[in-house]
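Lab meeting notes turned into a lecture example. A postdoc, R.K., suggested we walk through two folding results consecutively so the class can see how the record format repeats. The first protein's sequence and structure tokens come next.
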Amino acid sequence: MKSDNKLFGLGLLTAISASLCCITPVLALLAGTSGLASTFSWLDPFRPYLIGLTVIVLGVAWYQKLKPQKQTDCNCDTEEKTPFIQTKTFLGIVTVFAGLMLAFPMYAHVLYHKTGQEITEVEQSNAKRAEFKINGMTCSGCEEHVNHEVNKLSGIIKTTVSYEDGNAIIEFDHTKTDINEIEQAIGKTGYSVTEKKDLK
């Protein structure tokens, strides 16, 4: 039925849209265009509504698929084969894919590999700490994207990035890098630094 196909498509579209703000940083990183990472961060406030719409659409699709069909008296010998796109199996695949898309922000950080070298020994007088207020982060994938870019710099001791607090606290060796270089690295992700300050 065409209505089934429309429901399947709408369910997939809303599921992908709900997590697009978190999928984009990973895709941008894989494509080597980190600056596109924050392109869909404006969708984040709509995420709960998109998740709700996905659940409703897929619920209706499953209801229509599982409700008893009206039997018609027909003396036909041939039974039409249902196209795969209209089967329960296909709806099951769509549902699992939609679930994976909705859950993407929970496992996005796994897709980022560790970059940079950890510094174990730094002269105390060379160690500095700075906080950067960052606009545009919406999930743990965004945190990992910022971590990934900052850790490409030499002299990074430790990074603590939080999308919930909208900040990054970076410890670094000021003889190897500085606050401006770190700000530029964060800027490469597409998120913007709104404020920066020395913590020690």
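The second example is placed directly after the first for contrast:
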Amino acid sequence: MVEIKRVLAPTDFSAHSEKAVRFACALAERFGAELHLVNVLSEIIPAGPDPLLMPVMPPQFYQENENRAKETLRSLIQPSWGKPTRLVTAVRWGSPVEAIVDYAQEQQIDMIVIATHGRTGLSHVLLGSVAERIVREASCPVLTIRDSHRVAPAGDGGA
């Protein structure tokens, strides 16, 4: 028997990741599981000819971003999406893939539910896929929720 006690839904607060969070919320309710919501913030890396001349962001910049993300996570779930047994929210800094995979291991997550944009071709090669890397690297099952409103490639259905 499959037992799912903890479901992780990483979110970047986009409309597409909201669909995955909704699904994860309903899944957590169905299994009587906790729902973990995680947002990963990227550190700003100075770019330019001489990084030493770039301004350093003050500590309050990072604290304000983290506080804003925490508040958004706390208010993200709508009652109509389902009722997990418990809601856990977290904000992590760093690379999304590593932060999500590490969080899943630390919290003994049973399933990750994540949005995938379904990129193909050159955009997939250039941009890669956070969801695809999480599927490969996570130690638990990963359910991907695909974007159903994909834009047709150029040349499909033109006049």
